[in-house]
Design a protein that fits this description.
alpha+beta, globular
């Protein structure tokens, strides 16, 4: 079953997995594979297609249009680096009963930042996601004894980062204030 594709040094299975690593939207990848590789053995094709659908494309700080709509588009943090907003059931489902709202902000290597998330309506969690999609910081309750979140971070690479606002335990919604402060040496 490790048959090589014509003109390629990759097996069909490796080719399918390499297509997924390009962050092509999963449905489009599956449609491409079904249309262009009908000759694949059905016993291999269906498990690989199921694997691709199950894995899903990673959420990076870019938009991915599909069928005339935007799949994922984080909200740019306003120029003042502070926003008051509402978390609701119209936001991104977290998969465990709650919702999240993502903001994109550009940081430079060496930036020292403080991310402060405040809400009187739900127990907050703030997550910082690097340009490559990895979680590099998260905070539930700040040091002041409240359910607000406070995260300090030194940035190690230039790029667009995601600040994810969500409720603890997937429960809660409502108004919140997110503020990002760049610290300066004195």
């Amino acid at each position: 079953m490790n048959e090589t594709l014509p003109g390629q040094n990759l097996s069909r299975f490796q080719f399918c997995l390499d297509l997924h690593s390009l962050a092509i939207p999963t449905l489009s990848t599956t449609q491409f594979l079904m249309t262009n590789f009908r000759s694949l053995n059905a016993s291999l094709m269906l498990p690989v297609a199921s694997l691709l659908i199950g894995l899903g494309a990673p959420a990076y700080a870019q938009s991915a249009p599909q069928q005339g709509r935007t799949m994922y588009s984080p909200i740019p943090l306003p120029p003042g680096n502070e926003v008051t907003d509402v978390l609701s059931e119209k936001d991104i489902p977290t998969g465990f009963g709650g919702f999240a709202r993502d903001y994109v902000v550009t940081f430079q290597k060496g930036d020292q930042v403080v991310m402060d998330l405040l809400s009187d309506e739900f127990d907050t969690i703030i997550t910082l996601i690097a340009p490559d999609g990895t979680t590099i910081g998260e905070n539930d309750d700040g040091p002041d004894g409240t359910t607000n979140s406070l995260l300090f971070m030194r940035i190690t690479q230039d790029g667009n980062y995601i600040l994810r606002v969500r409720p603890y335990g997937g429960q809660g919604s409502g108004r919140f204030t997110l503020k990002v402060t760049r610290l300066r040496p004195i």
